[in-house]
Structure formats: structure tokens, C-alpha cells
Amino acid sequence: MDLSYTLVFTVFPYLCLTTFVVGHSYRYVTDRYAWNARSSQLLDNKSLRWGTVLFHLGIILTFLGHAGGLLIPQKYYDLFGITSQMHLAIAHWMGEVVGIAALAGCLLLLRRRLTNDRVRAAGSVNDLITLGGLTLVVAGGVYNVFFGNYNVLDSVAPWIRGIVFFSPEPELMRPVPLGFKIHVTLAWALLGFSPFSRLVHIWSAPVFYFFRNPILFRRNPELTRKVVDSRS
Ligand code: HEM
Questions:
Q1: 102 lines ligand 1 (CB under 6 A)
Q2: Which of 17, 51, 199, 220 could form a disulfide with 194 if both were Cys (CB 3.0 to 4.6 A apart)?
């Protein structure tokens, strides 16, 4: 087995995944007050709107598409009559739409970070690395969707499942075009970097908000009377 393939397509992903898990756990325990999205909406809302909506919609749908398309083997899709050609066509068309949305959002947010004086003054190098990294990963994905023309279901998908389920097979990546190799390697690097950035906010998405009991706010006549009395 080629040592360089083992290093890039087995050792590196596990290094990034370990940093991802240990880094998030450590930061959650030691630095919970800084565990947030560090929103800059108060500094400038107008320039944020389009960028953040396009970016978040695009990237969240991209995540779901990657999880469903790469982690679930084709044999389960076959059970529902979805052939590999159909699977690839859906991935291709959906990938074009959500990928372009995410990329447009990334570029708008990056331009805002670089050109808006207030946002730039309050920002950090870390913010630029985060957005720059996301832009590179997303741009690589979009390039592959438009120009890659390659069946990832027999190569990249089983390779990723091998990493996730602890039976790595780096040789599966040998025939894969360079564009895909760069995209996946940058994506692992970004995963490894995320605990040190504002990306930690992803894991605090307020999903339980929709299921919690409603909080009732009622007027308290007794209290209102006391306040009115105290003012007169
Ligand atoms: C899971 C649901 C998510 C929620 C509820 C959420 C929420 C937020 C909020 C409230 C902000 C601050 C306001 C803003 O700048 O838009 C923000 C910013 C940001 N989010 Fe998310 N986010 C989510 C997922 C993600 C994902 C999946 C990524 C990337 C992988 C991401 C990357 C970013 C980045 C880079 C910023 C900073 C944008 C900037 O100010 O330049 N978010 N997010």
C-alpha cells in the first residue's frame, strides 16, 4: 500500500476527526461563554441579510445531502427503486442549486467582512480563515458538481463510510479525480479547525425550541396596581 495515500486518506482524516471531537468537548467544558455564533448583525444588518440567508440555506441543505448521499449505501436506495443513475442525477441537480446558493452566500459574507468598516474592526483573523476556508470547500464542491463528471458512489462514498465506521480503505481514493481529492481534504481540515472558531454554534442550533412547552406571559393585575400606586 502507498504510504502517501495512507497518510492523506486515513491518517489525516482521523487526525482532523480527533481534533474535532476532543476540541469541541474541551471548548464546551472550558469556554462555554464564548460558545456562540458571534453575530455581527448589530454592527450592520443590511449587508448581512442576503449573504447569511443564502449561505445558511445552502450549507445546511448541502450537509443533509452529503449525509444522506454518502453515508447511506446505494443498496438501501435500491430498495426504494432509486437506482444509482437516479441517485447521481438527484445529487447533481440538487448539488448545483444548493451549492450555488452556499457559494453566493459565502462570497457575500466574505465581501462584507473585508469591506464593511464596522464589521472589519470588530472581526478577527479567525473569522477570515473560517469564511475563507468555507468558501474554498464550497467552491471546490461546486466545481466538482459542474465539471467533475465522476461517479462518487463507488469510490468517495465507500471511502468516507470506511473512515466513519473504522475500516479505512485509502486505495478507494486512487482513481478519484484531483478536484474531489482537494475538496475532501480541505473539508477534513475545516472540520479539524471548527472547534477553534465560531462554527461551534452549529451544535447549538435551537431545534428543541420547537418542542418545548410554551411559556405563558400573563398580566398580573396586583403587580400592575402596585407599580401604578408607587408612581403616583
Ligand atoms: C444549524 C443551524 C444554524 C444556525 C441556527 C445558525 C445560526 C447563525 C447565527 C445566528 C449567526 C450570526 C448571524 C449571522 O452572521 O448570520 C451565524 C453566523 C454564521 N454561521 Fe451559522 N447557523 C447554523 C448553521 C451553520 C453552518 C452549518 C455553518 C457552516 C458550516 C455556519 C456558519 C456560519 C458562519 C461562517 C457565520 C458567520 C457569518 C459572518 O458573520 O460572516 N452556520 N449562524
A1: no
A2: 199
C-alpha to C-alpha distance for 165 and 206, rounded to whole angstroms: 28
Q: Where are the beta strands (DSSP E) in the chain?
A: none
Q: Which of 188, 71, 194, 67 is nearest to 137 (CA)?
A: 188
Cell numbers 410554551 correspond to what residue? 214
Contact 123, 40 (CB under 8 A): yes
Is the CB–ligand 1 distance for residue 38 below 6 Å? Answer: no
Residues of the chain with pLDDT under 70: 1, 216
Mutation to probe ligand 1, out of 193, 201, 204, 210 (largest number of atoms < 8 A from CB): 201
Tell me the per-residue pLDDT of 104-133, one tens digit each, with 9 for 90 and over: 999 999 999 999 999 999 999 999 999 999
